[in-house]
């Protein structure tokens, strides 16, 4: 190359300050002791504890009318999605490699998918119940 032509830097490299050569891109990642990691881990731990408490409560009182009325199966799917969304925090802070990055992509999407699918299904169910109620109830005279 000369001063009149440009060449792209290879993968994982970037131009130096005066753009005469290429230097490796340094990897910047979160450290476990950083405040940017400690706060999300703390919040995630609280969320995991709270979600686990709700799951245990649901399992313990599985056959009560309130748990049955809330839609047991959909509630379990929703709680699983919420649990996965909290648990993904630890993978986001972990040192990136092929396995960790693969698990990040899988579990983040899976957690969101579980949560949204359960919410949409519950909302649809409630909507259908109210629509059915409008049709079957006769108006007072």
Describe it.
- The chain is mainly α.
- 65% of the residues lie in helices and 4% in strands.
- It has helices spanning 35-60, 65-69, 72-93, 98-136, and strands at residues 13-15, 22-24.
- A two-stranded antiparallel ribbon has the order 1-2.
- A hairpin with a 6-residue loop joins strand 1 (13-15) and strand 2.
- It is elongated, with a radius of gyration of 25 Å.
- The model has no long low-confidence stretch (mean pLDDT 89).
Fold topology:
Elements: E1 13-15, E2 22-24, H1 35-60, H2 65-69, H3 72-93, H4 98-136
Antiparallel strand pairs: 1-2
Helix pairs in contact: 1-3, 3-4
End-to-end C-alpha gap: 91 Å
Quote the beta fraction.
Answer: under 5%
Overall number of strands: 2
Proportion of helical residues: 55-70%
Number of helical segments with 4 or more residues:
4
What is the string of SSEs from the N terminus onward? EEHHHH
* Arithmetic mean of pLDDT: 89
**Biggest sheet details:** 2 strands, antiparallel
Unreliable spans are none
User: Which structural class fits the helix and strand makeup?
Assistant: mainly alpha
Estimate the global geometry from the Cα principal axes.
elongated
| Sequence of strands across the biggest β-sheet | 1-2
Rg from Cα = 25 Å
Question: What is the compact description of this entry?
Answer:
The chain contains 4 helices and 2 strands. The chain is mainly alpha-helical and 141 residues long.
């Amino acid at each position: 190359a000369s001063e009149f032509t440009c060449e792209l830097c290879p993968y994982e490299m970037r131009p130096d300050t005066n753009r005469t050569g290429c230097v490796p891109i340094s990897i910047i990642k979160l450290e476990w002791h950083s405040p940017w990691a400690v706060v999300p881990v703390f919040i995630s731990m609280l969320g995991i504890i709270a979600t686990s408490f709700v799951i245990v409560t649901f399992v313990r009182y599985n056959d009560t009318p309130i748990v049955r009325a809330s839609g047991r199966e959909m509630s379990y799917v929703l709680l699983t999605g919420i649990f996965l969304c909290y648990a993904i925090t630890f993978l986001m802070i972990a040192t990136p490699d092929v396995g960790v990055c693969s698990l990040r992509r899988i579990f983040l999407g899976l957690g969101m998918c579980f949560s949204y699918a359960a919410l949409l299904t519950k909302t649809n169910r409630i909507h259908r119940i109210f629509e059915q109620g409008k049709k079957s109830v006769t108006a007072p005279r």
